[in-house]
TrEMBL record:
It comes from the Bacteria. This is Baseplate protein. Residues 259-325 form the Baseplate hub protein gp44/GpP-like C-terminal domain. InterPro entries: Baseplate-like_2-layer_sand (IPR023399), Baseplate_GpP (IPR026276), Gp44/GpP-like_2nd (IPR053981), Gp44/GpP-like_C (IPR053982), GpP-like_N (IPR049354). Pfam families: Gp44-like_2nd, GpP-like_1st, GpP_4th. It comes from Salmonella derby. Residues 96-177 form the Baseplate hub protein gp44/GpP-like second domain. Residues 5-94 form the Baseplate hub protein gp44-like N-terminal domain.
Amino acid sequence: MNDNVTLRVNGREWNGWTSVRIGAGIERLARDFSVEITRQWPGDEGITTLQPRIKNGSKVEVLIGDELVITGWVEATPVRYDARSVSTGIAGRSLTADLIDCAAEPTQFNGRSLVQIAQALAAPFGIEVVNNGAPSGVIPDVQPDHGETVIEVINKILGQQQALAYDDPHGRLVIGGIGSTRAHTALVLGENILSCDTEKSIRERFSVYQVAGQRAGNDDDFGEATTTALRARTEDAFIARYRPMYIRQTGQATGAGCIARADFEARQRAARTDETTYVVQGWRQGNGTLWQPNQRVIVFDPVCGFDNTELLVSEVTFTQDQNGT
């Protein structure tokens, strides 16, 4: 199967790279890529041919074989050389990179859903938002702070809604749930797993998670208070010593929202203890499809304690160099 990496810019296609790295994940908002060609040092007459003909700021499509994997912008054209060789490269990120770097419009949102708020925040950048099973509940009140980036605003809401925000191959912003699809191929020690790296860390886990928020008072609160304080608490039984974490629920909080946030924070941090990086041979699964983030995958790895355990693919990195893919 064709796994050549092609950059398509202004109707022209470029390939033949000596090294490639493409990354995508559910804990980032923008895929990224870098490609490079390394040659032996040329004579003086060959130096001008090494200047990159793809310009910074160009819109680019990155393909693996015939499959689109990134739509974005060229952000760097590095040149490196020493006495023996010279290399030129192209690097960039998804269209959604601007949502990471740039400030959000200072607009107040009342009574709108997560997807509706994301659409309004992304609209000035010309970025489409895809609803992939996002929560439909109404969020009472959201307003970006001065200078706050789009992703910072979205992340505050994601904490309340227990949803994910990531990009797709078309450079669109996707709002959805966890584990939207299932991988065709399992990860099995002794078969397709080449190497493993895991910390099995509990550094970011806490014994108790307490979420506190406020909502405006209503008619039932008349004569008592103009605001009502809300609190929720979840414990992690695995952490024996006292390690509290306090979380402030932004915006107009609800009791159910505080409970869900505390439970989500505990589950998410506990899951990170099993966070593992596997290197596998090739970029495709048994059915020919590329590995994708946000897929549920079965893992059999008795060394790490996984006995046909279902895990979530949070990050995928495609690499190619002189050692292969």
